[in-house]
Amino acid sequence: MANNNLGGSSPETLVELHGLRKYYEVKGSLKRAGGFVKAVDGVDLDIIRGETLGLVGESGCGKSTLGRAILRLEEPTAGAVTFDGTDILGLGRKEMIPLRARMQIIFQDPYSSLNPRQTVGQIIGEGLLIHGMGNKAERLDRVRYLMDKVGLRPGHIRRYPHEFSGGQRQRIGVARALALQPELIICDEPVSALDVSIQAQVINLLMDLQDEFNLTYLFVSHDLSVVKHISDRVAVMYLGRIVELADKHELYANPSHPYTRILLSAAPVADVNVTPAREGLKGELPTPLNSPAGCHFHPRCPDAMEKCSQKTPALSTLENGHKVRCFLYSDETID
């Protein structure tokens, strides 16, 4: 993890999101149930240069869509994305090309995200070729350097993805993301498809690379233990909205939103002599096709009040920069 406030200086924001929305229009027979799937529903968030911001939540809550929307791999429906002071949603395709080199992604599936017809050297070096960086010999040197950095043998540069294990394939994905010397990397559940022992190796690799290359990560995951290990701050997402945001130590010690509290209570405990108090969620995760009115979490919340179904709480700031979207702490609304 990076230290974001060296010498007492103020941390610098690299990415800012304001009211970010990504809606998918529903077509065919499902259209009668609702006009849009609200995958990302009004997210305000900042990512500090050099930090790892963990993003957690149940499957289907919009985590991956949010990460892809930041990079404009999915075009946002509304809102603003500011990268290093530039509103990237106002840029045309040609204007985005230089910024593409500064923002990269590591995908969840280390096999389907690699072109099976390309060698490792071609996969890692493709971005260098597209952006016209260096001559052929210089690109080859860069690829071999990156392979060595991520723990692959440079002599395997002519091998194809199917000749590598899952962990090795994800290292190829990491090397590809590093090729253009980016500042921001979206890590979209980069270890969820790997064996537990391999997960630890890849996580430690990402942390070492962050320190060496001064990288900024948005780390998307549903694994609370992994997020706690790698993150500086943690944002909790539920049905397209951020419901809590805090320093990781603060969030894990003092979870404020009922959803966060329940998530943490369900996490496995390593000590067999400790029996944690479990809190269960009521019902199933609602569909973003027809999200509940008011606070999206109120149908499953043990602390729900009448107004929770009528008004939407704002993301309010508590002590120590701890932010939470809940009427238990503030009467502020966004309605």
Care to describe what's here?
This protein has 335 residues and is of the alpha/beta class. It has two domains: 11-102 and 183-268, Rossmann fold (3-Layer(aba) Sandwich), CATH 3.40.50.300; 117-181, no CATH class. It has nine helices and twelve strands. The strands form two sheets. Strands 6-7-8-3-9-10-12-11 form an eight-stranded mixed β-sheet, with helices on both faces. Strands 2-1-4-5 form a four-stranded antiparallel β-sheet, with helices on one face. A hairpin with a 2-residue loop joins strand 4 (78-83) and strand 5. The longest helix is centred in the middle third of the chain and has 18 residues, at 196-213.
List the topology elements.
Blueprint: E1 13-25, E2 36-48, E3 52-56, H1 63-70, E4 78-83, E5 86-87, H2 93-100, E6 103-106, H3 120-130, H4 136-149, H5 166-178, E7 184-188, H6 196-213, E8 216-220, H7 224-230, E9 233-238, E10 241-247, H8 248-253, H9 258-266, E11 316-317, E12 323-324
Parallel strand pairs: 3-8, 3-9, 6-7, 7-8
Antiparallel strand pairs: 1-2, 1-4, 4-5, 9-10, 10-12, 11-12
Quickly list its features.
Rossmann fold, 28% helix, 335 residues, four-stranded antiparallel β-sheet, single chain, 2 domains
Radius of gyration: 21 Å
Poorly predicted regions: 4-8
CATH architecture of the largest domain: 3-Layer(aba) Sandwich
Strand content: 15-25%
